Prior knowledge:
This protein has one helix spanning about 1-15; strands at about 20-35, 40-55, 60-70, 70-75, 80, 85, 90, 105-115, 120-130, 150-160, 165-175, 180-195, 200-210, 220-230, 235-250, 250-265, 265-275, 295-305, 310-320, 325-335, 345-355, 360-370. By secondary structure, the chain is mainly beta. The strands form 3 sheets. It has an 18-stranded antiparallel barrel. Strands 4-5 form a two-stranded antiparallel ribbon.
Amino acid sequence: MRQFILPVVLGATFVAYAADVEIHGSLNMDYASYFNSKFDPTNAANQDIDLSATAKLDENVSATVRTTTHSTYVGADSAVHESEVRHGIARSTAMGEDGHHNAFEFDGAEIRWSVTHSVDLIFGDMTYSAGAFNYYFWRDPARYAVITREESLRGIGGEFGNEKYGQGKIYFGASENAKSTMGLFGTYAWPLLNHVDEHFVVTPSIDWMFGDHIGRHNTYSLGVEIDYSKSLGIINYGTYAVWGMHPYKGKGVHSFLIEPSLNIALFNLGFSYFYAIVDEDYDVAEQIFTEDQMLFAVEPSVDINKKFTMGISYEYHDLDVNKDKDEYSFLGMNFYVYPTMRTEVVFWFGYNFKDVVDTDFALGISGRADF
């Protein structure tokens, strides 16, 4: 009960004392059924909800409080992990078991001062990541990234620039991962082309942790994101590419991602290809910020109308390219429904080839809303 009362009290305080309060959030919910070779199902579900309340104290100063809840499950290592629903295997608590629902928790607070129209100063909790995926099962930067996974610092930061000349961020503070760790993050989105029908943005980023115990394997991460898009009448195409590098036991781990896309009238085509160069003397899973050392995914789709899209997806996963019998393929269908802006519901089903995962056929529903 106390965990539920805290957000209510905070919300009431904002309403009572702030002249202008904005509520923002995102809601992600999933459900999936996993069928084994005997066609016995295992039903699993998870939810990921983020809420923030921003009080504008005057035209230049605001205060924000964030809360979050993520479903968790106990893994084979007996540790508690944030859950997710995927077509290959459930990484979430089976429905009907204890731990399926989790309470809201404090997720950070900040005070923001807009010194000018192009410079903001921040004090408080700052969250960042770099090199996120568009591949739909790896979109959560807290779990998957090419350059650096999601990190949080409590300290001071600055955000500067605009869409015309570029936008940058610099954060410095104490890391939430370990009590003896300080962190520094910097990034700058540089628009080389910024036209109505053509965009070309280059974004370098660097993330540095230092201290006696930094709570992760790598001291720093750096990389570059390249985002290009072009429109020619009914033809739209673009490419998102990322290179990331971080050290692991004295050697550099290099990760590469390319995600080209094409749209011609009602037809869409999307690709994702990821590959990581790792040190073969150590386990791959400890060196990268993804699940597979190599991933290839392609999905052609057709827009039936503005509210409904249907696609066929094929994926190839390889956990370690130097090991045999650890790869698998997935073939399935996705049905996208868009009830209104900033909402999406996906119905999917498909089949896993090879026995790396203990699932043959899987189906599920995923829903997202931003407000």
